[in-house]
Amino acid sequence: MKQTGTLYFFCGNMGAGKSTKSKQIAIDKHAVLLSEDEWLSDLYPNQINSFEDFLTFSARIKPLVRKHVQNILSVGTNVVMDFPANTKKQRKWFLDMVFDVKASHQLIYLNLTNEQCLRQLTQRRNEQPERAAFDTEAMFTYVTNFFEEPDALEGLNILELNGRE
């Protein structure tokens, strides 16, 4: 039987460290790393000015990303996706992708408190001033309203980390 790769993807509030952890996992698992923020900024420079813009442009790239990831997994290579899996609908998209090619998956849930996330957002704004307009407490509060905690009943293989790992 042909060996497929494993898909690693992330769930956690804004500022939880999903991008940082994705880079570490990609190195640890010898995996291809795909970052939604990088794809969107390269494909749509200076066009994402609101959360609604983000959602619109994100939806545009999903069919291409899906096919690309499935091709990579199908040849036995691991993939780490720095794309949010913060709602049931988003997680279903990841699961459908892996089930179609009979690949394995792991959802890494960064379960940090709001206070931890806000501290990390403050640090990120200082380190990456280009993100300061988006990485605000108001945006954090807005985006957090959409967050749905993952549940194994969704068919997920979940690894939960609480920020001390």
From TrEMBL:
InterPro entries recorded: P-loop_NTPase (IPR027417)
Specify the superkingdom.
Bacteria
List the Pfam families hit by this protein, alphabetically: AAA_33 (PF13671)
What keywords would UniProt list here?
A: Cell cycle, Cell division, Kinase, Transferase
One GO BP: cell division
Recorded hits in Gene3D superfamilies, A to Z, give:
P-loop containing nucleotide triphosphate hydrolases (3.40.50.300)
**Gene Ontology MF: a single term:** kinase activity
Is Methyltransferase one of the keywords? no
Q: What is this protein called?
A: Cell division protein ZipA
What is the source species?
Answer: Halolactibacillus halophilus
